[in-house]
Design a protein that fits this description.
The chain is α/β, with parallel strands linked by helices. The chain folds into four domains: 228 residues, no CATH class; 204 residues, 3-Layer(aba) Sandwich (Rossmann fold), CATH 3.40.50; 144 residues, no CATH class; 94 residues, no CATH class. The strands form six sheets. The chain has a nine-stranded mixed β-sheet, with helices on both faces. The chain has a five-stranded mixed β-sheet with strand order 3-2-1-9-10. Helix 3 packs across helix 4 and helix 15 packs across helix 19.
């Protein structure tokens, strides 16, 4: 394979150029001679994008590995991965054509940059890059080669300075890299640089940071020292080279524009101007990156979803279940093994998927993400499926989303406080009863208000790490505001200084004075028990967002928002509570809250052009929150279908604490469609029986009267041969359950013994009129999970 029309390929010829054509008279590299190739193919004349990346380790290799759009098994899982891969090798190829391959590095910020994207992807054990850089061995086995090809400095982003990604010019020299755009090879530095610029413009990116090509007739410049060491011969991994690369700092760029002299063993400064540094005690905090504006928008769907569109026919005797019915909420109850997930749950989920819904899926068990992968595959929605999990590519900065979202209410302290209060209610329910005390709630609101006011005034650099450090360093003794004692407090003093400097308007100064009064006068004088209770609860909530690998999902860059779901994405939060426990619960609850409030800001009641969405809560008792009743009241206007699956009513009673019975009944009452599967819980079955109501039934009694006295011998003989009928039948009316509680014990639960059939009683508001029953017994064909 070649890269463009070279000396040996005449116009119109399919003969590819050789490495000599591309890289002078130095001859082919050894890697090229054995047939090693990385081929990038782009499509789109006006807005180019990567269509396929293909890697072959050597010519006799049984087959090439690749990632490609629209491929089911090896498709792109995140837009930034193919973009970062494209720009990395375009610039590496330019460096090779200009004689700088050995000193090439692809720089970027510690978080949010393309270098960070590549570093994070390399650090995983799977993903697009690992799928691509795999060698098929002669014996049929496969071996990952990503560590032989890519390396660099600060790959894991654990240092304050920037990341740098390098390509091993020994294993994959530039003459092994090929670029095609719309079938035409790009083989010169000028064409590749121009194409790089076109890609960046099409993707709304900053210009390349790579140096310009050397002037003609001048040898390419050689840096005094390489920024990163060359990759060793395989198989050593790039991690072994990291200490050596770090030892070569400061880099030449930093040496040309020296700033303040760093302390010994400190990393060189990264920015042109010195920036305020947190106190040494504070942990390194990544910056809060701006969210791209297009992530806050929902494009026109081009679809048509009227409220009266039929979705499922549960019974031929009743009208179909419609889109409008779905917006009124669904509750599915059934014991473990009753078939609620594989029966009615799967039937409704597939109906939503085939109808084009977007959706958010909350998970409790570890295999639920796999279940939704199979559902999306069956319904042709693989390209819309997004799985959010530790080590994955998708992320939403929760606090940044609420602080940066446009429109009325965006960036308001009150909304951030409501967000945290909702998480606190989830975090503390059924574990500590003090959270229901109005004094406790007021104290928590005051603390959060004073905290967010200062952070927003200080520039909005909000993260859970910074919030926890700030509150932990707050003074517990009264400090006059005119004294400078607070200046030495880590993070706390930094934020206060920045807030004072930024307070320009009268309103800013009012908020600043209110916050300072709280922290210097009010907070230290709180009763120790109240202060301890509030801060411990807040810390417990914050700490759930600060565990291993979790900040990358919710405190770094953002490439996925609730608006993505409204545009048609199926977002599965693969942070099952059974595995991630409190962290999984709170991260998913935060996603749920932002999704609900985003929908509530929309009013598209009856707008058939607005794509419907669903909120799916398996074992929904875990995710119930104080905000839910507000959301369900407006779900129809937001064109959102909420589906809760649970085993029995006791799960809700336990999660909701002392007032759980009434709260659970309120939740159940707001979900108009109810599906009852097999259950052996008497209280749940009794609730279902009461919900279906009573009907008039006739009770009949049979009796026998006394034989009449015979009158004479003839009457005696007649009674002996033809006795009179003295039996009687009497009927009386009684009110009885339409479906008795014990009937739910007899419903089929699927599996081979039931021919994979699952029974359930279904009811929804308005399904029947007149004398017809308002419920029906239906059967679902089971789809094993």
């Amino acid at each position: 394979m070649g890269m463009g029309k070279g000396k040996k390929g005449s116009k119109g010829s399919s003969t590819p150029p050789t490495a000599t054509d591309l890289f002078g008279d130095g001859g082919d590299s050894e890697a090229r001679r054995i047939g090693r190739r990385l081929t990038l193919r782009f499509i789109g004349r006006n807005k180019p994008e990567l269509d396929r990346a293909e890697f072959r380790a050597y010519a006799p290799c049984p087959k090439a590995t690749y990632i490609q759009q629209r491929d089911r098994e090896y498709s792109f899982t995140w837009t930034r991965v193919p973009q970062a891969l494209s720009l990395l090798f375009l610039e590496y190829l330019c460096a090779g054509l200009e004689g700088r391959a050995d000193s090439f590095s692809f720089p970027g910020a510690r978080t949010g940059s393309f270098a960070a994207t590549l570093g994070d992807a390399m650090a995983k054990n799977s993903g697009s890059l690992h799928d691509l850089f795999t060698e098929h061995l002669k014996d049929g086995a496969t071996a990952g080669r990503i560590q032989w090809i890519l390396g660099g400095r600060n790959l894991h982003g654990k240092e304050n300075n920037e990341r740098r990604i390098c390509v091993s010019s020994e294993y994959l020299p530039p003459d092994c890299v090929e670029v095609f755009w719309e079938g035409t090879a790009l083989a010169t530095s000028d064409k590749l640089r121009a194409f790089n610029t076109k890609l960046r413009e099409a993707w709304n990116l900053e210009p390349s940071q790579q140096p310009p090509p050397p002037a003609k007739n001048e040898p390419p410049p050689k840096p005094p020292a390489p920024e990163t060491p060359r990759q060793p011969e395989p198989p050593p991994a790039p991690e072994s080279a990291q200490p050596k690369a770090q030892a070569q700092e400061p880099e030449p760029k930093d040496a040309e524009t020296p700033k303040e002299t760093p302390a010994p063993a400190a990393a060189p400064p990264e920015q042109e101007a010195p920036q305020p540094k947190p106190a040494p005690e504070a942990p390194p905090i990544p910056p809060v990156l701006p969210i791209e504006p297009h992530l806050f928008t929902v494009p026109e769907s081009g679809g048509h979803w009227p409220d009266d569109a039929p979705l499922i026919t549960f019974s031929e005797d009743y009208p179909p279940w419609t889109l409008g019915n779905a917006f009124e909420g669904v509750l599915i109850l059934g014991a473990t093994g009753s078939g609620k997930t594989s029966g009615s749950g799967t039937a409704i989920a597939e109906t939503f998927l085939r109808a084009g819904f977007g959706g958010l899926v909350l998970t409790v068990k570890q295999k639920e993400a796999e279940h939704w992968q199979r559902l999306c595959a069956r319904c042709g929605r693989e390209q819309d499926l997004v799985i959010v999990g530790v080590g994955g590519d998708w992320r939403l900065n929760l606090l940044s989303y609420e602080a940066q979202r446009p429109g009325r209410g965006g960036g308001l302290c009150a909304n951030l406080v409501s967000f945290c209060q909702n998480l606190l209610s989830v975090s503390t329910r059924s574990k500590e009863q003090g959270h229901s005390d109005p004094v406790w709630r007021l104290a928590a609101s005051q603390l959060l208000n004073a905290t967010f006011d200062l952070f927003l005034l200080a520039g909005g650099q909000i993260s859970f790490d910074r919030l926890a450090t700030f509150i932990g360093a707050a003074p517990t003794q009264v400090i006059p505001t005119h004294e400078a004692a607070w200046l030495n407090l880590p993070t706390f003093g930094e934020v206060l200084r920045a807030a004072r400097q930024a307070a320009a308007t009268d309103e800013d100064k009012r908020l600043l004075a209110k916050a300072e009064f709280y922290w210097f006068q009010n907070y230290p004088t709180l009763a120790p028990r109240t202060r301890t209770s509030v801060t411990l609860s807040v810390f417990a909530m914050f700490d759930a967002f600060r565990g291993r690998d979790v900040p990358a999902l919710i405190s770094s860059g953002t490439n996925l928002t609730p608006e993505s779901i409204m545009a048609g994405k199926i977002v599965v939060l693969d942070l099952p509570i059974k595995q991630f426990q409190q962290t999984g619960l709170l991260v998913q609850s935060a996603w749920k809250y932002l999704f609900e409030t985003t929908l509530e800001r929309e009013d598209h009641d009856g707008d058939a052009a607005r794509r419907p969405v669903f909120l799916w809560e398996e074992e929904g008792q875990h995710f119930v929150s104080d905000h839910d009743h507000n959301f369900q009241a407006t779900a129809r206007s937001a064109r959102a279908a909420r589906v809760i699956l649970t085993q029995n009513v006791h799960g809700f009673f336990k999660e909701l604490g002392p007032h759980g019975i009434e709260a659970a009944k309120s939740i159940f009452g707001n979900l108009n469609t109810k599906i009852f599967h097999a259950n052996n819980d008497p209280e749940t079955n009794d609730l279902a029986a009461k919900h279906f109501g009573s009907e008039i039934h006739m009770r009949y009694a049979f009796g026998h009267g006394a034989m009449p006295q015979p009158h004479g011998i003839l009457d005696t003989l007649r009674q002996q041969f033809d006795p009179p009928d003295t039996s009687s039948l009497t009927g009386t009316e009684h009110l009885e359950y339409a479906v008795r509680p014990e009937a739910f014990n007899r419903l089929r639960t699927g599996g081979p013994k039931n021919n994979f059939l699952v029974d359930a009683y279904v009811t929804w508001m308005g399904m029947a009129t007149g004398d017809e029953r308002h419920f029906t017994l239906t059967t679902f064909e089971q789809h094993p999970r």
